[in-house]
Amino acid sequence: MTGLFIMRYEFIDFSLGSRWTLVATLLGILAPVGFMQAIGGATGPVFMAQGKTSLLLKFGIFSTVIYVLAFILGSSWGVVGVAIGYLIACVFVTIPTIYLAQKSLGLAYLATYKSIFPSVLWALLAAAFVSLIKEYFLLSKVMFIDLTLQTLIGGSVYLIAMFYLAKPYFINIMKR
């Protein structure tokens, strides 16, 4: 998601053309939504496995109301307003969802955030590196080459950071 966020304008310009710039703006708004849903989406099976489907139903109704209100309020500002409303609604839905799942599992509230922090850090490091390369070093006038280089550089930085920063975790896993 961070890679697509950083390269959204170039990606849309290359894949759809310059007339689709609004889609790049929407990607910029919705990329954080994808990140939140990747984390919050895993909570449904937790509730089902623990036999708390009534809680899942109630929270589903609550979420639906929040999303519909966000869409209605955002629609006054067009498609960008709807996307922003959806982003805000996701924040208001994801945080309590994770909290309820953690409480249901008996986990400390910060446990989930502590476990995902390294991945977020690596992604932000890769995004910062790609942004710097994009801004100061990419001299190609061929968009496909620039996109390919940015993707390879970002992926490489992410993997290298993951290996070096998470080395103790890998060593621990290999010992088992």
UniProtKB/TrEMBL annotation:
Alphabetic keyword roster: Cell membrane, Membrane, Transmembrane, Transmembrane helix
Origin superkingdom: Bacteria
Membrane topology: Multi-pass membrane protein
Sequence intervals crossing the membrane: 20-43, 55-73, 79-101, 113-133, 145-166
InterPro entries xref list: Poly_Biosynth_Transport (IPR050833)
PANTHER family in UniProt: LIPOPOLYSACCHARIDE BIOSYNTHESIS PROTEIN WZXC, PST FAMILY PREDICTED COLANIC ACID TRANSPORTER
Record-stated family: Belongs to the polysaccharide synthase family.
The protein's name in its UniProt record: Polysaccharide biosynthesis protein C-terminal domain-containing protein
